[in-house]
Write a structure and sequence with these properties.
The protein is an alpha/beta fold. The chain has 2 domains: about 5-175 and about 215-240, NAD(P)-binding Rossmann-like Domain (Rossmann fold); about 180-210, no CATH class. It contains 8 helices and 7 strands. It has a 7-stranded parallel β-sheet, with helices on both faces. The radius of gyration is 17 Å and the shape is globular. The two termini are about 35 Å apart. The structure holds nicotinamide-adenine-dinucleotide (NAD). Nicotinamide-adenine-dinucleotide binds near residues 11, 56, 58, 82 and 182. Nicotinamide-adenine-dinucleotide binds near residues 14, 56, 82, 176 and 178.
Length: about 240
């Protein structure tokens, strides 16, 4: 029970990496608030020990403020929400970029602003931001908007880490490779030939397969726990070798 006595909140916990992370955090004894904009997806937490499901749209600043004001001080915040835009710079509109910045970057700013007062009062906290290897680490085809915004997440992470390092608050980022989640399935199925599209995603993974969300969650548990107490401002890459 590496997280006994700790409280955590996870955004975009309805499916994929967020969901796997909620289960892993709760299994280690944390009291977890699993949040998502999609209430239907949150029904899966009925009866799950240590987990309270709450609707939260991270594009809604007032809703973030209202929820965090109601909760006890949190030890851990996992900012998992994000959106993938498919296309090159020529195919990206101003609205595409603005929406991705709002969900992938600005939402993290808002939740961190909401969680900080409690963490500062307690003199401790671990903030974990979802980034990607597709960022300043690696350029991938048709990921202009996505890579641009996930690179911003890395900058945000370093900046928060620098400002709060002496106050007991850590801020790190997780950078997965390609993970077999519902939204990846949607991206694959949107292709004319989904089977070929899946093969192409697998081909860019040197391990010859996609990750499962349960293979990313242990890194989130590590960063939430005191085992990572000396780590801040770092990017934890779990990518099946994509950035070797
Ligand atoms: N799947 C991958 O290959 C991969 C790789 C690297 C990074 N990531 C990142 O991991 C994160 C999760 O992706 P995933 O593929 O595991 O999950 P997913 O994309 O399948 O699910 C995303 C979840 O986010 C929720 N969501 C969407 N808009 C929201 C909002 N405004 N407020 C709150 N919740 C909202 C959805 O309801 C859904 O439950 C994203 O930030 C993504 O960029 C994913």
């Amino acid at each position: 029970m590496r997280l006994k006595g700790k409280t955590a909140l996870v955004t975009a916990a309805g499916q994929g990496i967020g969901h796997a992370s909620v289960l892993a955090l709760a299994a280690e004894g944390a009291q977890v608030w699993a949040t998502d904009v999609n209430e239907k997806l949150l029904e899966r937490y009925a009866g799950v020990a240590n987990v309270t499901a709450v609707k939260l749209d991270v594009l809604d600043k007032a809703a973030i403020g209202a929820l965090f004001a109601k909760l006890p001080a949190l030890d851990v915040l996992f900012n998992c929400a994000g959106v993938v835009h498919n296309g090159t710079i020529e195919q990206a509109s101003d609205d595409d970029l603005a929406f991705a910045f709002a969900l992938n970057v600005r939402a993290q700013m808002w939740t961190i602003q909401a969680v900080l007062p409690g963490m500062l009062k307690a003199g401790r906290g671990s903030i974990i931001n979802m980034a990607s290897v597709c960022s300043s680490m690696k350029g991938l085809p048709n990921r202009f908007v996505y890579g641009t915004t996930k690179a911003a997440v890395l900058g945000l992470t370093k900046s928060v880490a620098a400002d709060y390092v002496a106050k007991g608050i850590r801020c790190n980022a997780v950078c997965p490779g390609t993970v077999d989640t519902p939204s990846l399935g949607d991206r694959i199925n949107a292709n004319a030939d989904p089977e070929e599209a899946r093969k192409a995603f697998i081909a860019r993974q040197p391990m010859g397969r996609l990750a499962q969300a349960e293979e990313i969650a242990p890194v989130v548990v590590f960063l939430a726990s005191d085992e990572s107490i000396f780590a801040t401002g770092q990017f934890f890459t779990v990518d099946g070798g994509i950035t070797i």
